[in-house]
Amino acid sequence: MRCRKEIREDRGSSGAHLDGWNEEEEERCSLSGGFGERCTRSMASDTGKKLIQIDVSSDTVCPWCFVGKKNLEKAMEQSKDKFDFEVRWHPFFLNPDAPKEGIRKSDFYKMKFGPAQFERATSRMTEIFRGLGLEYDMSGLTGNTMDSHRLITLAGHQGYGKQNALVEELFQSYFCQGKYIGDKQVLLDAARKVGIEGAEELLEDPTRGVDEVQEELNKYSSGISGVPHFVINGKYQLSGGQPPSTFMRAFEMAAKDGA
């Protein structure tokens, strides 16, 4: 779906916005549309290559966040001979008051956008996902994403590689397999698959980890109104499902800036 293109204020010291690199209209999920800090400067990694650190604000029910992740990974793969990468995921809530018990995706988006726009959006997103080698599944439920963000935050303490793998599993479950992101068993299955420890204990207590999620939200996502949002080496900002070439240009600029 083409999410609403938003006007955002520059966050002063937060750095340069590079959204204009994309000739197409910016596409992302926004608080109004739904469908729709910083890390250190570039430094040498253990391999001698420059380290590019990427902070990503996203929600686990945002399809553009999955698209953005796939395009980011293509850019990283094409740039791996030049740079090492560290990707860190941070929470954002498109629908913070969404019900814990969930609601059918199709019903929710038809109510929110109307049947005609829903059908157009679904058709377009299906085409975009197929272009990435994925099948877009609109079956199942949507709803509150707090538990998924609690789990992602926990995973970050066990390594950003594990955290990234968990985000992939959750996106695959929700967008390609029709699984509900608020289902405890879905979350546990994803955690076990990528080797996250302590997931069951975390999810048994609905208050555990909530404060940390809120801290992450305030630190990384309070100044934005749509996702995905990427901050590269603490300075260069990109929003929406940008193409790999845009990410690659941002990598080069960030590396030169930190030389």
Automatic annotation (TrEMBL):
GO terms for molecular function: oxidoreductase activity. SUPFAM superfamilies: Thioredoxin-like. It comes from the Eukaryota. GO terms for biological process: defense response to fungus. It holds the Pfam family DSBA. CDD domains: DsbA_FrnE (cd03024). Residues 53-250 form the DSBA-like thioredoxin domain. InterPro entries: DSBA-like_thioredoxin_dom (IPR001853), Thioredoxin-like_sf (IPR036249). This is DSBA-like thioredoxin domain-containing protein. It comes from Setaria viridis (Green bristlegrass).
